[in-house]
Amino acid sequence: MTTLRMRVARIDALTPTIRRLLLVPIDGAALPAFSAGAHIGLHVPIDGRTQRRAYSLVNAPDHTGHYEIAVQLEAASSGGSRWVHQLRIDAELDVSVPRNDFPLDAATRHALLIAGGIGITPILAMARALDASGTAYALHYAAREAALMAYRDEVLAMPAATCWLDGGDPRNGMPLADTIGAPQAGRHLYVCGPRPLIEAVLAQAKTLGWPDSHVHSELFAADQDSTADAAFEVVLKASDMTLTVPADKTILDVMIDAGLDPLFDCRRGDCGVCTTQVIDGTPDHRDICLSSQDRARGDFCPCVSRAASSRIVLDL
């Protein structure tokens, strides 16, 4: 994958825990184009090795002189968000070119955009792109309180946007059934944010009869609470290895630690690049990309999913 050498040109504090960074190319060359929903990969030094952390691009696709990202500092961060929050103006870093696993469907005639928390980043890029193309849309942005809403003023300035505050109780927030409504020809739903929001939106859309092809989601896995996770054993049949997966690491993490070179990209369970097969054991699926049919035939995303049993055997 092509890597760009970039410089931090600007930093803004959007909330007490979210920083916006504008990145520009060191050599002044034109940046690779991208489409709304795309992300870039920051090459982050963690525990003595370089790891890639994906962050959604917020700027409109026609603003290609820079890349704009917004990064939330996570209390349970593995190091990525902490490293980004320590960057200063003129810091240099390596960045993987944009990749889009959450694109706007070309058949969209009206878009329903739903964002929760830091999930506003790709959703706002979509709204900007839809504005530019003249495509109708409605944007709904949910958070606990106004002070935690990055880009709130910009969202409120959009005529078709609504902000919802629930004070920490989802029952007081966005009325999903009314917000989503019945499916319509050419209407597509896009949702990004923490897992509980995405699961609630997907379940409500299904209840209302939305076809799967008209519902699109991207998970921000950093919001997961992993405090209740337990260690388990993973058997990699093709590699003839047995590894222990501790509570604070993923199967993908321990494979990399063991010197293996697994195929992966997003590390959030939303792209499906790392998908493998469960041979034995009970999976605890935590991805957002696999359908119920995929899971029924044994598909499994080792970047986020775990084992509900004490041992799981994978075709890796």
Automatic annotation (TrEMBL):
The chain crosses the membrane at residues 21-42. Residues 1-105 form the FAD-binding FR-type domain. Residues 232-316 form the 2Fe-2S ferredoxin-type domain. Gene3D superfamilies: 3.10.20.30, Nucleotide-binding domain of ferredoxin-NADP reductase (FNR) module, Translation factors. GO terms for molecular function: 2 iron, 2 sulfur cluster binding; metal ion binding; methyltransferase activity; oxidoreductase activity. GO terms for biological process: methylation. It comes from the Bacteria. Keywords: 2Fe-2S, Flavoprotein, Iron, Iron-sulfur, Membrane, Metal-binding, Methyltransferase, Oxidoreductase, Transferase, Transmembrane, Transmembrane helix. PROSITE patterns: 2FE2S_FER_1 (PS00197), 2FE2S_FER_2 (PS51085), FAD_FR (PS51384). This is Vanillate O-demethylase ferredoxin subunit. It comes from Paraburkholderia susongensis.
